[in-house]
Design brief:
The complex is a heterodimer of chains A (522) and B (487).
Chain A (H helix, E strand, L loop, with lengths): L1 H8 L1 H10 L1 H35 L9 E4 L40 E12 L2 E8 L8 E2 L5 E2 L6 E4 L3 H5 L6 E7 L5 E12 L9 E3 H7 L7 E5 L10 H8 L4 E3 L3 H14 L2 H26 L1 H9 L4 H30 L11 H32 L2 H5 L7 E5 L7 H10 L2 E4 L2 E2 L2 E2 L2 E2 L6 E2 L4 E7 L4 E6 L4 E6 L5 E6 L11 H15 L8
Parallel strand pairs in A: 3-9, 6-8, 12-19
Antiparallel strand pairs in A: 1-10, 1-11, 2-3, 2-7, 2-10, 4-5, 4-8, 7-8, 13-21, 14-15, 16-18, 17-20, 18-19, 20-21
Chain B lengths: L1 H11 L1 H22 L11 H7 L3 E4 L14 E4 L9 H4 L1 H6 L1 E4 L8 H8 L4 E6 L1 E7 L3 E8 L15 E4 L11 E5 L14 E12 L2 E20 L1 E9 L6 E8 L3 E5 H12 L8 E6 L5 H11 L4 E4 H11 L13 H9 L14 H26 L1 H9 L4 H37 L4 H35 L3 H7 L1
Parallel strand pairs in B: 6-13, 8-10
Antiparallel strand pairs in B: 1-14, 1-15, 2-3, 4-14, 5-6, 5-9, 7-10, 9-10, 11-12
Helix pairs in contact in B: 1-13, 2-11, 2-13, 2-14, 3-9, 11-13, 11-14, 12-15, 13-14
The chains are: A alpha+beta (522), B alpha+beta (487).
């Protein structure tokens, strides 16, 4: 309870600071407002473009629900071996209000094999489909005007518009030339048996499958027509699930153009993701710069607060209260501004409420994350800084360490420590250059814990002190390697207990050296 | 004196100045990039496509590239084979297998008015309709018969003569009325033709149904033509380390081409005979431009002005060809080490339908400039805060308000000027080199560079002055006694 009280106690102070730093906090607030507006408006524009793009791709009118064009070498599978093609629910965000989604995956209800083969017609290259006798997907009008689906050998059924485009009539003879595998051309005459009676897309001339097999020298079946009515309401997971049974196949279904357009638009918009990241990166950079400048200016204030006993949690709550206020204030004002701005952008009307809410929530969470990251550095600095460093504007390292033993002692150091009863430390040196300061000269007497060498690295972020491991004399140091040797006053002064595995490695080498199996080099 | 003091201060705080220079550099580089869409291509870029196409930009009447949807436009799915009267099949081989999206309100050909409108565009030097129809070569494989200029009429950058490895190009229309120049490697063909061979060309009948050209293969006619030249189309040059000798070897790879070239006179003869009075409107054009410095800008403008046509620059087309490997026969790799040739072939990627990316220069530019300005302002603010005492002393010994402002601004302007110039140079070096290789006169290059430089440095200087002014005014108006007492 007292902890809570102490945190609450700094709040009035934070409020005063808000007034004191009003202009720069206002700048941060402005950044938040701008970012909220820019990112939501920009993302909503992208979303609306996606929506429009997929709406502008015209859906296919097809007599079947799915056409699988098999890759070379694949054979069609029986109906029982096919999986339920769709996922039970729609993963697509924001689409839940467009599609009616069933809870249980529905299996395919009907399958027919199909042979697709190209040929030369009097009017360019055609693709002819060899369908099964009594196919349930196609019906056509014959001379008598009656719709049938029983195809006769030697008969060809043409798409509806071929009558007007090429002037064919029922009963006409039509020559087609098929390429065989041995590069020979097989020219055959078909009789036009009828015209498909629907205006479906992607219509092709149809012949009996057996006819086509005979003409093309038993060419393998390369496509399958499937029925599953759920595909017409949504296609979640369709391509993924079907790819498991027919890898590399092409799938044609009514909403395929929409899916393709969506993919293409996502491709076009992919650089836009960088713009969004840039918006947030600049927000983070802006907050961090201002927070750092503010920290530099309030060093004295922090020094006083620290010296009168302010705890770290209180400092954190001070920062959080100041910046949290700006964050929430900026966000609320940002969204109010957004509400005024949105109607002026034509794309806003195409967004659903869900999409807009999720964009705003997304923005709020990202901004929060960036705020925390940006304020983290000044908070860490406040924690790491001593009152001295704050008052005299000294560098504040984030990582400090006192070192009185080696982390990975070399065997020769262990050897010397054991044989000569000394203690060895080694400061960091790069390319035989030592950057740091020696506070003691060799030959001087040092007390245990006394600082002998200080080193700064990582652009001042890390500060390390090498301290004397025992009361004794600082006997020698090597300016190239940074090795320091201390001789203890007391012969029985305790040694640093190095882990057993390090010592046994050293002992094993020692034994090998003494028995003459090694030349003693480590 | 105060200006010098400002510059000295920038030097004294080297680390912080460098940071500000760096951020300004990034902003200026991006601004330089945005002044022109791309910084042009070197003079030799896309050379073999430019020669094959007889131009720097290929224009197709039917649009297959997707971009952000325009109001009222619709895309429909199509699985018909691509037109035989264009070379779409060469550049987009996947489309015939997987189908493609195309504009519902498609254009099938370029009318004379379209060509006249295209000729008006600045930067376009000449427009060549591509004369092309499909035919069968020795009843074995389908080829494209292309009508080309006779010797000496093609410009140097576009002539195919340089690719002749045997024989000669059409010398005059009268002599070469039954002559043909043929590629060394023809897809699906095992025969290698020689100069002097006679080839049999099966030309279909042509008719126009619903405003689209159709080849009528059952009304074919056969003509005999004499091979007078063989062309080998160099696609890429590969250097590798020869494991046997340990030395670097290099190999020129030649490409497939299913195009056979006849003189324009012969082409029209064949067309008129087979077409039975069918008028020919080109489905593909090639556009010649003066040089490649602003090629992508021209393509971008053309795309906006003629949204129903598709425009591709030759270097981009070359990139596409080289990425799908449909152009190079197995035999072309015969001299390469097996592993290298397999690696190269494995790079082949399956293309999705081509998309044109949206132009995002403006939002990115605004953001980057805003960020750079923020960093300059922060830099100056920190500088002012840290040097309160110094400024107070300067004021105490008689420096005026304008002197202090000048001192602070000098630092800001110097930092931005340096950053701006460095950023500009970083991006512009490539452009200058490209312009030199495009054989632009010195003064043209200089004026291009200076114009861009003026825009870049001018905008960055405005930002520096505006954002540096606020902290400068703040520092100039502080009270001397207040500061000295606090410190």
């Amino acid at each position: 309870m007292s902890k809570l009280k102490s945190i609450i106690a700094v709040l009035p102070f934070a409020m005063k600071n808000l007034g004191r730093w009003r202009f720069r906090l206002l700048t941060i607030g402005l950044l938040v407002i701008m970012t909220a507006n820019l990112s939501v408006l920009y993302q909503s524009m992208l979303l609306s473009q996606q929506n429009t793009g997929s709406l502008q791709a015209v859906q296919l009118e097809l007599p079947y629900d799915l056409l699988v064009r098999l890759p070379e070498g694949a054979t069609p599978k029986p109906l029982e071996a096919l999986p339920a093609p769709l996922d039970p629910y729609d993963y697509g965000k924001g689409k839940s209000n467009i599609y009616t989604v069933l809870s249980k995956p529905m299996p395919f209800s009907h399958a027919e094999n199909l042979l697709i083969y190209p040929c030369f017609s009097p009017y360019g290259t055609w693709e002819v489909w060899g369908i099964e006798q009594g196919s349930m997907f196609f019906t056509w009008d014959t001379l008598t005007g009656k719709a049938v689906n029983q195809i006769i050998p030697g008969e060809i059924i043409l798409p509806k518009d071929y009558a007007s485009r090429f002037g064919y009539r029922v009963g006409d003879t039509l020559s087609l030339a098929f390429f065989l595998n041995n590069n020979e051309l097989n020219q055959v005459d078909f009789v036009v048996g009828g015209f498909l009676n629907t205006d479906n897309d992607l219509q092709k001339p149809l012949v009996l499958k057996e006819d086509l097999l005979k003409l093309t020298g038993n060419s393998p079946i390369n496509a399958q027509l499937l029925a599953c009515s759920e595909i017409r309401s949504h296609t979640t997971g369709l391509v993924r699930n079907m790819n498991k049974v027919y890898p590399g196949a092409e799938f044609i279904y009514p909403t395929m153009p929409t899916d393709r357009a969506t993919e293409a638009i996502a491709d076009i918009q992919s650089p836009a993701a960088w713009v969004i990241r840039l918006i947030y990166a600049f927000l983070g950079l802006g907050i961090m710069t201002i927070a750092l400048v503010t920290f530099l200016e309030r060093r004295k204030e922090l020094a006083i607060l620290k010296s009168i006993g302010l705890r770290f949690t209180q400092i954190v709550s001070l920062y959080l209260a100041e910046y949290g206020f700006v964050y929430f204030g900026g966000l609320i004002i940002g969204y109010i501004v957004l509400a005024f701005l949105l109607p002026y952008f034509h794309w806003s009307s195409q967004l659903t409420q869900n999409q807009l809410t999720s964009l705003m929530l997304n923005n709020a969470l990202t901004t929060l994350g960036i705020f925390l990251l940006a304020v983290m550095y000044p908070i860490l600095l406040s924690r790491a800084a001593s009152v001295n460093q704050l008052v005299f504007a000294r560098q504040i390292p984030l990582f400090t360490a006192k070192i009185d033993h080696l982390l990975r002692p070399k065997p020769e150091f262990l050897f010397r420590e054991r044989e000569e009863n000394v203690r060895i430390l080694q400061a960091d040196s790069i390319d035989q250059k030592l950057s740091g300061a020696f506070l003691r000269h060799p030959g001087e007497h040092v007390k245990q814990g006394e600082v002998v060498v200080i080193q700064e690295s990582w652009f001042g972020f890390r500060y390390r002190e090498w301290i004397a491991p025992c009361d004794g004399t600082f006997t020698e140091y090597d300016i190239y390697t940074g090795v320091m040797v201390f001789t203890p006053d007391q012969p029985n002064a305790p040694k640093y207990p190095y882990p057993a595995d390090i010592l046994t490695t050293y002992d094993r080498r020692q034994v090998a050296f003494q028995s003459g199996q090694s030349n003693g080099s480590y | 004196m105060f200006l010098r003091l400002g510059i000295t201060n920038a030097w004294r705080n080297m680390a912080r100045s460098l940071l500000a220079i760096l951020s300004m550099m990034v902003a200026a580089s991006f601004l330089s990039y945005s002044v022109s869409l791309e910084k042009g291509y070197a003079g030799g870029a896309g050379q073999f496509v430019r020669r094959m196409q007889n131009g720097e930009i290929i224009a197709y009447a039917e649009k297959l590239s997707l971009e952000m949807p325009r109001v009222g436009e619709h895309w429909v799915f199509e699985d018909e084979p691509l037109s035989d009267f264009t070379d779409y099949e060469l550049y987009y081989p996947e489309y015939s297998n997987t189908g493609y999206l195309r504009l519902a309100e498609r254009n099938n050909y370029f009318t004379n008015e379209d060509i006249a409108a295209l000729e008006e565009i600045t930067g376009i030097e000449a427009i060549n309709p591509i004369l092309r129809f499909p035919a069968w070569l020795n009843t074995q494989m389908q080829v494209s018969v292309v009508g080309r200029e006779t010797q000496g009429i093609d410009t140097k950058d576009h002539t195919m003569e340089e690719y002749l490895i045997d024989g000669h190009w059409f010398s005059s229309e009268a002599n070469d009325l039954n002559s043909v120049v043929i590629s060394q490697y023809i897809p699906e063909s095992e025969t290698q033709y020689k100069v002097g061979d006679t080839i049999e060309l099966t030309v279909p009948g042509f008719s126009r149904i619903e405003n689209r050209l159709h080849a009528q293969w059952f009304k074919e006619e056969t003509v005999e033509l004499k091979v007078i030249g063989i062309v080998a189309i160099p696609t890429r040059y590969i250097s590798y380390i020869n494991s046997a000798t340990g030395l670097t070897s290099a190999e020129q790879i030649y490409g497939y081409s299913s195009e056979i070239y006849v003189s324009k006179a012969l082409w029209w003869n064949l067309w008129n005979k087979a077409g039975n009075q069918t008028p020919y409107y080109p489905e593909q054009l090639s556009l010649q431009t003066e040089n490649l410095t602003y090629l992508e800008d021209i393509v971008y403008d053309l795309g906006n002005l003629f949204p129903h046509f598709q425009f591709v620059s030759a270097p981009k087309a070359e990139e596409r060809l080289l990425s799908n490997f449909s152009l190079e026969p197995e035999i072309a790799f015969r001299n390469l080490p097996l592993k290298l040739s397999l690696d190269l072939k494995n790079q082949a990627i399956r293309e999705q339908q081509a998309v044109i990316s949206a132009d995002l220069r403006l939002p990115i530019l605004i953001l980057i400039l805003f960020n750079a300005a923020l960093l300059v302002a922060a830099n100056i603010l920190i500088m002012v805060t840290e040097r309160k005492r110094e400024m107070a002393i300067l004021k105490a010994i008689g420096a005026m308000r304008k002197n202090i402002i000048a001192m602070v601004l000098a630092e800001a302007v110097m930092v931005t000027f340096l950053g701006g110039s460095l950023g500009f140079l970083l991006v512009e070096v490539q452009s200058i080199l490209n312009q030199i290789t495009n054989r632009n006169p010195f003064f043209v290059i200089l004026s291009n560079v200076m114009r861009s430089y003026g825009i870049v440095v001018g905008s960055t200087a405005i930002i520096a002055i505006f954002f540096g002014l606020l902290p400068a005014i703040k520092s100039a108006s502080m009270s001397v006694m207040g500061v000295l007492r606090d410190e």
